[in-house]
Amino acid sequence: MSQEVTIVRNVLEANDRLAEELRNKFRVRKILCLNLMSSPGAGKTTLLERTLSDLRDEFKMAVIEGDLQTDNDAQRVAATGAQAVQINTEGGCHLDSGMVLDAIKALELDGLDILFVENVGNLVCPAEFDVGEDYKVTLLSVAEGDDKPEKYPLMFHISAVMLLNKVDLLPYVDFDMEKAKGHATKLNKDIKVFPVSARTGENLESWYNWLREKRAEKL
Known about the structure:
- There is one protein chain.
- By secondary structure, this protein is of the alpha/beta class.
- The model has no long low-confidence stretch (mean pLDDT 92).
- A 7-stranded parallel sheet has the order 3-2-4-1-5-6-7, with helices on both faces.
- It has 8 helices and 7 strands, in the order H-E-H-E-H-E-H-E-E-H-H-E-H-E-H.
- 40% of the residues lie in helices and 18% in strands.
- It has one domain (2-217): Rossmann fold, CATH 3.40.50.
- Strand 2 (61-67), helix 3 and strand 3 (83-88) form a beta-alpha-beta unit.
- It is globular and about 45 Å long.
């Protein structure tokens, strides 16, 4: 057991060292880096498509896409005109800082305002691995259970933002918005909660204003 604990500690420590190297690269260039996480199908890529399209006249943005296989999401993101690079983890359940450090070699960082890291769809592993981000952002769709924050506490405890996505489906699903908010804020009193619909655009301006605020803080 002690050997297993040591190995896990060494892996996380090595990851954290590379994450700090990434963070320094972003800090020097005044890039806002966000680690976007959710379970599969919560709407991360749709949110990014909408965000990249709506804010392309304000910010220069890029996306690192993490998936088990295919470059489907990277192609969707690239169609907005943003820089995009795909990481296929070949079965791995999360991105780590080494993968991101390698991926940024394919990006033009100079002049970049915001870098989104779309993590692998998973509410467990991605929470444990720093990828050099300034903030973690978690999506929870109303098509999922409102008890997800309670079931996966670490993810919501360490996130700066919880986007409650697909609110256009609320009339058709059994989801208690206040219960979900309550679970999240019990874990993290400072978490920002934005109910949105990436499909219809409902309340996305609240998300955009948060991005504007955090980007301004980098200057």
